[in-house]
Amino acid sequence: MRVPPEGFNDELIRTVSEAFRRLEEFVTPRCTWGRFHIVHFDGGIELEGSYIYSDDIARLTRRGGECIVLAATLGHETDRQITIAQNRNMLDGLALDACASVRIDSFIDQFIVNEIVPTLRKGERLTHRFSPGYGDLKMNVTEDIIAILSAQKRIGLSVTASLMMSPIKSVTAIAGIFEQE
Q: Where are the domains of the chain?
């Protein structure tokens, strides 16, 4: 028998379980992606005419000359339902928000395995995905990714002047492609 971690009680477990169940009633996960050539320079990479200054992304992609760029979202209805839940009951809203964060990451992981990995050539592998805000990869790279992928047109993803994505439960990322030795 599994014992819940300290601090968890039956009510909290029910709240989180219900949030996961409810989430599936309205999420509309969508993803767009592309495979692109990159050029390395000291302190970053050039990707489709955008200069991305990041030692971390340069290290991540150093073993190859291409990368995968992706953008994914759970849709505007997810944001709306989280706000409604927060206004009714803060715990329910918090649980729904946290579950939506888990859901977008899970969706991306499944998408990579099911849709992107099968397109790789023999011997190619992907690095882990790296998102703006990780390490020294600046948040404004989100704007470049959305533009490169035409993500606003394809999946309805945009970025505000304060660099927040809309819908909020969205992710952009870069993964390097390398030849396995």
A: 28-75+102-179
